[in-house]
Amino acid sequence: MGSNIRKGNDHLTTILVEAAGGSVRSKTCHLADVFHRLRARMGYKKVIVAVARKLVVIIYRILATRIAYQEPLPRSIHEKVKARVIQKREKDLERQGYQVLLTPIPAPV
User: Fold this and answer.
1) According to the model, what pLDDT value does residue 95 have?
2) Which residues contact 13 (CB under 8 A, 6 or more apart)?
């Protein structure tokens, strides 16, 4: 990712960056989830610009298709990490020559 914002309307850029900053403070917004995933490996300002760009793409698609925005269903970061760890462990065992069949344990009543 580049570190500079491309040439364009300075006022619009300012508004989009501020909107991105506000949306990442929300706990239920999809853009906040994007922010936290990117923030783990990039600086704050770069991530805000990336979220602002994502916001522009969303706005463009709404205007181009004239279809209302449907926010993606939120998945907990813990669920994603848990699924990733399970897949990694399963692949590790398969590489060592084991056949793996995982079945979740039913919740106690």
Assistant:
1) 94
2) 5, 52
State whether residue 106 is helix, strand or coil.
coil
What does the pLDDT look like over 22-31, one tens digit per residue? 999 988 888 9
Tokens describing residue 67: 């279809």
Q: How far is residue 33 from each of residues 27, 72, 73, 78, 108, measured CA to CA in Å?
A: 8, 10, 11, 12, 31
Q: How far apart are CA 48 and CA 35, in angstroms?
A: 7
In the chain, where the domains are located: 10-65, 74-100
Alpha-carbon distance 12 to 101, whole Å?
53
Encoding tokens for residue 101?
């069949």
The pTM assigned to this predicted structure is 0.65
